[in-house]
């Protein structure tokens, strides 16, 4: 996955992860997805690497046949 920005917005994360804004905020508040507020304290910023780290932390369970 190639992302052109170094930081992403909640909306960017929604698109990349296929999740709702509520789910993204929940991941942030649970400490599962690193994010910080911008200098004005109004907008969440999510580092590109935080998205990649979160995706790499997910466990994939394959069904047994």
SS content category: alpha+beta
N- to C-terminal separation?
A: 30 Å
Instruction: Give average pLDDT, whole number.
Output: 91
Low-confidence stretches: none
Number of helices: 3
Radius of gyration: 13 Å
Notes on the protein architecture:
The protein has 65 residues and is an alpha+beta fold. It has a domain at 7-47. 42% of the residues lie in helices and 12% in strands. It contains 3 helices and 3 strands, in the order βααββα. It has a 3-stranded antiparallel beta sheet. A hairpin with a 6-residue loop joins strand 2 and strand 3 (44-47). The model has no long low-confidence stretch (mean pLDDT 91). GO terms for molecular function: DNA binding. Pfam families: HTH_17. Residues 8-57 form the Helix-turn-helix domain. This is DNA binding domain, excisionase family.
In short:
With 65 residues, this protein is an alpha+beta fold.
What is the strand and helix layout of this fold?
Elements: E1 7-8, H1 10-17, H2 21-29, E2 36-37, E3 44-47, H3 48-57
Antiparallel strand pairs: 1-3, 2-3
Q: What tags apply to this protein structure?
A:
65 residues; alpha+beta; 3-stranded antiparallel beta sheet; 3 helices; elongated; DNA binding domain, excisionase family; SinI_DNA-bd; DNA binding; HTH_17
């Amino acid at each position: 996955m190639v992302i052109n920005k170094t930081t992403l917005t909640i909306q960017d994360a929604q698109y990349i992860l296929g999740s709702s804004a509520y789910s993204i905020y929940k991941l942030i508040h649970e400490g599962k997805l690193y994010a910080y507020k911008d200098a004005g304290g109004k907008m969440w910023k999510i580092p590109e690497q935080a998205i990649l780290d979160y995706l790499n932390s997910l466990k994939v369970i394959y069904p047994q046949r």
